[in-house]
Structures are given as C-alpha cells and as structure tokens.
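Standup notes
- DV: blocked on the single-chain target, sequence here:
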Amino acid sequence: MDNPVIFVVLIVAVIVGAMLLGGFVRRSVVRSGGRYGRRVAASRVDDALGALGATLVVHAPEPMVREIVDEVIRHDPRRFSLLEHGAYGLRFVEEDDGIVRLAPDANGVRLQLESAREYLGAPKASGFWADLRERVGEAATSRGLTVSDGAPLSYERRELDGGGVEWVWTR
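- DV (later): unblocked, structure below
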C-alpha cells in the first residue's frame, strides 16, 4: 500500500463515482418530485371542480331570483360582476373568470357556474362561487323563500385560443 498509484486510482474512482452517483440521485429526485407534484395538482383540481359543480336551487320564479342575485352582485363589485345576456361574473383576475347563469329547474331556478378559467394549474373561482351561493341563499331565505342544493355539475377542460385553460360545464 505504499504505492502512490493505488492512492491516485482510488481517489479518481471516488471522484468519478461521486459524479455519477450525483447525477443519478438528481434525476431520481426530479422524477419523484414531478410525480408528487402531478398527484397534488390533480387532487387540487378535483377538489376545486367538486366545489365548482355545486348548485343552488331557489324555489321562486325567475324574475324574483334574478332580482336577488343582482342585488348580491351589486353589493360586492370587486368580486362579482353583471355580464351581458343575463350572466354573472366571478372575478379572480378578470371580471369573467367564472361565468354564472340562472337555469330553469323543476323546483324553481338553479344558480350554476357554467365555466371557470384555470390559473396556476387549477380553477381559482371556487371560493368566490361558494361565497356567491351562500349570499344568494341567505338573501333568498331572508325573503321567506326556500333554497336547496341542486344536482352537481361536471366540467371538462378546454384550451383557449389565447393560450389559457377553461373548465366548461358538460351538459
């Protein structure tokens, strides 16, 4: 073991082994992190879509329900907006990030979210949507109307022309 060539070869082998092992560990960690990130993102999207699919049925004629929703929308213009053709907007970034409409229901009028834009990998309108449903439910109840949860909706992902993503109600 007095030969310096053996020490040099051993040191070079350790250095080369560390370089190869470092690349292997790095690739393995990146793959594992990517799988975990996709799993977390998928669960976050599923949770958001479940919340967005909730609907509210107000047991009253459409003009009365529209009056209630209009009043709720006007009280918080930073979060909600009145759009064209009787639609309402949920504002995360833009005024129409979530599109809400009134639809006829067997028991009255159903308040439903028809589409929501995706930001940072998931639709972000679920908090605004829950707040709007709660406020409309409270306003309708305060007028003596009955409200109930409607049938949940499902959504499909669509690419937008401008490069964004939107989740749209599937009929």
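- Follow-up: The helical segments are 4-52, 62-75, 126-142.
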